[in-house]
Amino acid sequence: MAQTAPAKKMLIMNILDILKRYTDEEHKLSQKQIMDILWSDYDMAADRKTVARNLSNLMAAGYPIECRDDVARTYINKQGKKETSYILSDFYLERDFTDAELRLLIDSLLFSKHIPYSQCKELVEKLEGLSNRYFKSRVRFISTMEETKPKNPQLFYTIEIIDEAIAAGKQVAFTYNEYGTDKKLHSKREREYIVNPYQMAATNGRYYLISNYDKYDNLANYRMDRITNIRLLDTPIKPKEQVQGGKHFSLPKHMAEHLYMFSGESIPVTFRIKKIIMNDVIDWFGSDIAFTDETEDEVTARVTVNWSAMRHWALQYCRHVRVLSPPDLAQTIKEDLQNALNNYQD
Questions:
Q1: What is the CATH number of the domain that holds 206?
Q2: Nearest to residue 254, comparing CAs of 204, 210, 212?
Q3: Per-residue DSSP letters for 102-129?
Q4: Region 47-63: what's the mean pLDDT?
Q5: Which of 36-40, 183-187, 275-279, 320-324 is predicted with the least confidence, judged by mean pLDDT?
Q6: Highest mean pLDDT out of 5-9, 56-60, 244-248, 264-268
Q7: What pLDDT shows up at residue 141?
């Protein structure tokens, strides 16, 4: 008896595990099927009444288990009244995430450019565990990335410390790095960066810290996968309202104006585009863009955007874009294009 008691106590947990592994809205189990899996997978025998009682207990405890009522039989009771008994069947566990939602989360991880391979693989496996065996059999066919991305094993620790710092209103100190030809991170300078952290944001497959470098009064963006040796400081942050652009800070607006997360002030920019890249323009700048002087093939666009980001974007789409103003930006891009052409001169 001493050996069977723990097994009986595990019965309800094993039934719950069966529902997690084998069921969803499209895959349901009868009580008989649950009994068969208990025997085949757990070497545990249970009769139909025992299984039914444990399923009822799980539902009473609040587990999101759905089932169907089937008529078992109709009979006349001792008082001569007609009664109907029911049997529960087609049990399945409702999921917190649909398979489509899990697939979206997994794809986001796979296409991330900042999460190290081993950590990405571990997270994908955890997400797979939120569904059942049928979902796992499908994600086997997802093409995963090779382990070619540079590694920063401190990334998740960095995120944890920054999250704590933002919540506590404290400064952080860290080493900021850049890659060398050895494909490894190297400190940009000997001194630590001391910053006031305000927000974390993801864009273009990378994670950024939006903050203020303590010596200056503007917002600055740092690639979090290039941060190492982070420390939480006891000193309070500089209030965001005291930082240029911080008083009326809006994350969507900030992201739209800083396409590549360059730091610096945003300015009005007017440019002429060929309409064949209209989808790209909307993808990058969103709906906060004004169009004028439209012809069949071209249109003039006006946006508020970071100066350096617009320079980079205009060069990326140089075959279809001409910056009209401000004049210094247009001239700089013209010089960039001439220098690029010179690189191809014999």
A1: 2.30.30
A2: 210
A3: HHHHHHHHHT-SSS-HHHHHHHHHHHHT
A4: 89
A5: 183-187
A6: 56-60
A7: 47
Token pair of 33 as six digits: 């099927």
User: Which residues 6+ apart lie within 8 Å of 308 measured at CB?
Assistant: 260, 262, 264
Of 125 and 158, the one with more pLDDT: 158
Peptide bond into 326 cis (omega under 30): yes
CB-CB contact of 289 with 301 (8 Å): yes
- Helical H runs in 23-75? 31-42, 48-60
Q: Give the span between the Cα atoms of 48 and 36, in whole angstroms.
A: 11
Domain that holds residue 198: 155-246
Name residues whose C-beta falls within 8 Å of residue 5's C-beta, 6 or more positions apart in sequence.
none
Rounded to whole angstroms, the Cα distance separating 266 from 245 reads: 9
Nearest-angstrom CA–CA distance, 186 and 229: 12
**Angle 301-302-306 from CA coordinates, rounded to 5°:** 125
Pairing of strands 206-213, 185-187: unpaired
Are 174 and 229 a contacting pair, CB within 8 Å? yes
Instruction: Indicate the residue type of 320.
Output: H
Same domain, 88 and 104: no
Residue 278 CA to residue 285 CA, distance in Å, equals 10
| DSSP code for 245 | T
Q: How far apart are CA 155 and CA 59, in angstroms?
A: 41
Q: Indicate if the alpha-carbon torsion angle 238, 241, 242, 248 is positive or negative.
A: positive
Is 233 a domain residue? Answer: yes
Same domain, 159 and 242: yes
**CB–CB of 295/252 below 8 Å?**
no
In the block, residue with structure tokens 């025992």? 50
